[in-house]
Amino acid sequence: LQATGSGVLSTLPANIQPGDTLPAVSAMVKVGPFKYSLLISERKVLRNETIVVPAGRFDCVVISEQKTESGPGHNRSLTNFTWYSKGVGYVRHDTYVEGKLETSETLQSVH
Question: pTM, whole model, 2 decimals?
Answer without folding.
Answer: 0.85
